[in-house]
C-alpha cells in the first residue's frame, strides 16, 4: 500500500495586486477528485496543512461562478463531507517527514499563493522528498508551492525541470485576471523551470522523472492516476 501525503493550503484569503483581500482556499475538485482516485486504488492518504489548521474550501469551487456545474458541486460537497473528519484535523507540516511517505501531492486553488509558496516546512519536506527519490506531485496553483523548495545557494530545487501549471491565459479567462498577486506560470519560469501549459482548461499532465504536474482542475483525475502509475512502476 502506497503512503501519500496531500498538502493542502491553510490560507483563506489572498492579498491582491491592488491591495484588496480576496477570499480563497483550496479548490474542491482538486482535493475531492484527487483523493477519491488515490484511495480507490488502496492508497493511504494523510492530509497536512501549515500549522495543522483546518483548510478552507474556496466557495467559488462549489459554484457556477467558478465554472462548476451544480451537479459537480453537489458531488464534490458529498465527497468532502465524507472526509470531513480528516479535513478537520490535518497534520502540521512542521511535524511530517518525507521518509514516511512514497509521494507528496499538492492540490491547488488560489490558496497556495497565500501560504505554501513561501512555507519553509514545505520547502524542507520537498527537498527531503527529492533527495530520497520520492514522487512529488503538484496541481494547478499548487504547482506554485514548489517555489518553497530552495537549494543551499538560494536557487530553485525544481529549476530545469519540465512541468505545467495554471496558465496565464487561464488566469485571464477564468481566474483572478490582472489583479493576481503574481503569475504562477511566470514566477516558475523566472526561477528556471521549463513550463509548458496545454490548451486552456484541457486535462494536461506532465511527468519529468519523479515530478508530476497537472495544469488545472480539469487535470485532477488524470494527475492522480499518473501518480498511481508512477507508484506502481516502483
Automatic annotation (TrEMBL):
<dbReference type="InterPro" id="IPR050325">
    <property type="entry name" value="Prot/Nucl_acid_deglycase"/>
</dbReference>
<dbReference type="GO" id="GO:0005737">
    <property type="term" value="C:cytoplasm"/>
</dbReference>
<dbReference type="InterPro" id="IPR002818">
    <property type="entry name" value="DJ-1/PfpI"/>
</dbReference>
<dbReference type="Pfam" id="PF01965">
    <property type="entry name" value="DJ-1_PfpI"/>
</dbReference>
<dbReference type="GO" id="GO:0016740">
    <property type="term" value="F:transferase activity"/>
</dbReference>
<protein>
    <submittedName>
        <fullName>Dimethylallyltransferase</fullName>
    </submittedName>
</protein>
<keyword id="KW-0808">Transferase</keyword>
<dbReference type="GO" id="GO:0019243">
    <property type="term" value="P:methylglyoxal catabolic process to D-lactate via S-lactoyl-glutathione"/>
</dbReference>
<dbReference type="GO" id="GO:0019172">
    <property type="term" value="F:glyoxalase III activity"/>
</dbReference>
<keyword id="KW-0346">Stress response</keyword>
<feature type="domain" description="DJ-1/PfpI">
    <location>
        <begin position="86"/>
        <end position="151"/>
    </location>
</feature>
<dbReference type="InterPro" id="IPR029062">
    <property type="entry name" value="Class_I_gatase-like"/>
</dbReference>
<comment type="similarity">
    <text>Belongs to the peptidase C56 family. HSP31-like subfamily.</text>
</comment>
<keyword id="KW-0456">Lyase</keyword>
Amino acid at each position: 500500500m502506497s503512503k501519500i501525503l496531500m498538502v493542502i493550503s491553510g490560507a483563506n484569503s489572498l492579498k491582491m495586486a491592488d491591495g484588496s483581500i480576496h477570499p480563497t482556499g483550496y479548490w474542491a475538485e482538486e482535493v475531492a477528485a484527487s483523493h477519491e482516485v488515490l484511495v480507490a486504488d488502496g492508497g493511504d492518504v494523510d492530509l497536512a496543512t501549515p500549522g495543522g489548521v483546518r483548510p478552507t474550501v474556496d466557495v467559488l469551487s462549489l459554484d457556477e461562478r467558478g465554472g462548476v456545474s451544480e451537479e459537480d458541486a453537489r458531488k464534490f460537497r458529498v465527497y468532502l463531507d465524507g472526509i470531513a473528519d480528516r479535513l478537520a484535523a490535518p497534520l502540521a507540516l512542521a511535524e511530517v517527514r518525507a521518509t514516511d511517505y512514497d509521494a507528496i501531492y499538492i492540490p491547488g486553488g488560489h490558496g497556495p499563493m497565500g501560504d505554501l509558496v513561501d512555507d519553509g516546512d514545505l520547502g524542507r519536506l520537498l527537498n527531503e522528498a527529492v533527495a530520497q527519490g520520492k514522487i512529488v506531485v503538484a496541481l494547478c496553483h499548487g504547482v506554485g508551492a514548489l517555489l518553497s523548495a530552495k537549494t543551499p545557494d538560494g536557487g530553485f530545487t525544481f529549476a530545469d525541470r519540465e512541468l505545467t501549471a495554471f496558465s496565464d491565459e487561464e488566469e485571464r479567462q477564468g481566474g483572478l485576471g490582472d489583479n493576481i498577486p503574481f503569475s504562477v506560470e511566470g514566477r516558475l519560469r523566472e526561477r528556471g523551470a521549463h513550463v509548458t501549459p496545454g490548451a486552456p482548461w484541457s486535462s494536461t499532465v506532465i511527468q519529468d522523472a519523479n515530478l508530476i504536474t497537472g495544469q488545472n482542475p480539469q487535470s485532477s483525475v488524470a494527475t492522480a492516476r499518473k501518480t498511481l502509475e508512477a507508484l506502481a512502476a516502483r
